[in-house]
Predict the 3D structure of the following.
Amino acid sequence: MTLYLPIAEMSVNWLVIILLGGGVGFLSGMFGVGGGFLTTPLLIFYGIPPAVAVASSATQITGSSVSGALAYWQRGQVDLKMGGVLVAGGVIGAGLGQIVFTWLQSLGQIDVSINIIYVLFLGVIGALMLKEALGALLAARSPTPGPPRRRGHVPWIAALPGRTRFYKSGLYISPLAPLALGVVVGILTVIMGIGGGFIMVPAMLYLLGMSASSVVGTSLFQIIFVTGAATLLHATSSRSVDIVLALLLLVGGVAGAQVGVRAAQKLSPEKLRLALALLVLGVAIRLLFGLTVQPADVFTLQEAG
């Protein structure tokens, strides 16, 4: 029931890794997120070195996103023009992120840096998600619901030059805004091993003002190419991709994404967002605990006498 991971230099229970990949793939298909923001911390909890967890997680995200994107493609819910702009920005960001990742690795600080970034990032994102989810639940239960939340691109985005039409997304904006968004997500993809969908989806909705029908599918479309670029960079530069681990995650992720797409059509979105917010905050708290609590086995270095 165990397999040896060459780069991670450890044996793992293959069934546990496949189930972990399946659970994250399920979230990918349901929410339009790559799932790396959960895969990477869970692999770290399991004992995988953070640098290997980041690189291998990006590989798994690529596969599960292909599965989910195809399902949305069949429904006509992917904006190829918008996706192309996001991908271009993402590839640029991935290159910048790899420079930072390699620099931290050369300093010997990559593992600690990844943990600290995750604690801060997931803590902030989780709190914002929890606030939004609780507000949505209260609004849904209110006998006199308030006016629907207005969605449209913010004024500074409307003022950017070179506007063009994104017909499927229902937008007439400058491609500079989605390009910049793609760059940010590309950097995070390389450093954190995330697909960036849990940033991309709300940003496309509330910053760019995209039509909700094409957001999730377009997010998954760009994740495929950006995480693919991140995997290539990790494999050739930092050499931290563990192919055995990535394949095990991929097996579960592809199947889980298909189930997630179907479940998204049936379950209450308010309760799902609440559950995801609590999960994100739980992971952040667990990572913080690991950074601050003294381990059971303490080692010291001393000069031999």
In short: The chain has one domain: 2-137+153-290. The longest strand covers residues 2-5. Residues 160 and 176 are 7 Å apart (CA to CA). Residues 298-305 have pLDDT under 50 and may be disordered.
